[in-house]
Design a protein that fits this description.
alpha/beta; Rossmann fold; Elongation Factor Tu (Ef-tu), domain 3; 2 domains; six-stranded antiparallel beta barrel; 12 strands; about 20% helix; about 25% strand; globular; SIP_fam; SIP_FAD-bd
Length: about 350
């Protein structure tokens, strides 16, 4: 395990996201990351919450949070690629544009969208029917589409949204055995079309929090970067990010006065272990924290368990979400979640009838 630190005081002004101004050259991908280490074994997830809000497989809190973000925007938006840019050997930024960004809102610093990619040889995604009813209904309709028509859907963090330029950035982690999202991103060119739905976000800091803890793997880098950029100047944050390649580390600017970023390079194949060890061994600030945890589901589960059980952190002050699950695809998780939801509803109805 290799650990490197990035500490800084507040700059005079916050660094703005650098625009993606030119297509990136083709380059071979390397270790599986954002669209996940899981994808090497089974399809793909992404740099944001795994499944549709309807089958909510990414846990947030056991108890209501003091400040809950708004419900997701259930509107399909067709967009085209305007530029791509390689940020690190395994991180690619794709900038999207289009009139459908009109009315696109801001849900939270960690906001994410559902992205629909063209199926097979198609040049544009075939979208489900217009959304009516709740999120579970549209997701069932999506899954019911014929396999040769249904567009692959993945969830990605909105790295930046510039309404005045009508541009939106998504960051993709590339890997050699890519699923549909990584494959599409690695060959994306200006004019290519995708569609998205959203945004939605879960980052919500309690009023009594005195500092913030951000923990994640490659899949969480876009959200962590966006959160850090939007921290107030008097904020205190401790950040732990696990990556598989030292070359994927880069500076994460923030206007906050007290930010310490720890990059942890894992050993091959040991997803989550290195960053968990670093968090457990860390000398963290006292008082009331707000913890935001994202990445592989087991990493997130054990990080939350450590904070709540070992450090006594109030579980209501922990936002956590499994961005991906090792060995599982987003469709598999979504179908299972719908089945579990239906089973729970049936059991509740049976209990109500019996009483």
């Amino acid at each position: 395990m290799t650990v490197t630190a990035q500490s800084h005081a507040a700059p005079s002004t916050a660094s703005a996201p650098e625009p993606a101004d030119a297509p990136a050259p083709d380059a071979p991908s390397a270790a599986p990351t954002q669209a996940s280490p899981a994808e090497a074994a089974a399809g793909e997830t992404s740099a944001a919450v795994t499944v549709a809000e309807a089958p909510q497989t990414s846990a947030t809190q056991d108890d209501p949070h003091p400040a809950q973000p708004a419900r997701p925007q259930l509107t399909f938006r067709r967009l085209t690629v305007s530029a791509t840019r390689r940020l690190t050997p395994h991180l690619l930024r794709v900038t999207l544009t289009g009139d459908d960004l009109d009315g696109f809102g801001t849900a939270a610093p960690d906001q994410y969208v559902k992205v629909f990619f063209p199926h097979g040889d198609r040049t544009r995604p075939d979208l489900p029917p217009p959304i009516e009813g709740d999120t579970a209904s549209w997701y069932r309709t999506y899954l019911a589409m014929p396999d040769d028509v249904r567009p692959p859907m993945r969830t990605y963090t909105v790295r930046a949204f510039r309404p005045e330029q009508c541009e939106l950035d998504l960051d993709f982690v590339l890997h050699p055995d890519g699923g549909p999202a990584s494959t599409w991103a690695s060959s994306a060119r200006p004019g290519d079309e995708v569609a998205l739905m959203g945004p939605h976000g879960i980052y919500a800091v309690p009023e009594d929090a005195t500092w913030q803890l951000l923990v994640g793997d490659e899949s969480a880098i876009p959200a962590i970067a966006a959160i850090l950029e939007q921290l107030p100047r008097d904020a205190c944050a401790r950040v732990f990010i696990e990556v598989g390649d030292p070359a994927d580390r880069f500076d994460l600017p923030s206007p906050a006065a007290d930010v310490d970023v720890r990059w942890i390079v894992r050993s091959p194949g040991s997803y989550g272990d290195a960053v968990l060890d670093a968090v457990r061994a860390a000398d963290l600030p006292p008082a009331a924290p707000y913890a935001w945890l994202a990445g592989e589901a087991e990493l997130v589960k054990f990080a939350r368990r450590h904070l709540v059980r070992d450090r006594g952190v109030d579980k209501r002050a922990v936002t956590f979400t499994g961005y991906w699950r090792k060995g599982r695809s987003e469709e598999e998780i979504g179908r299972e979640s719908l089945a579990e939801s239906a089973s729970t509803s049936a059991s509740a109805s049976a209990s109500a009838s019996a009483s």
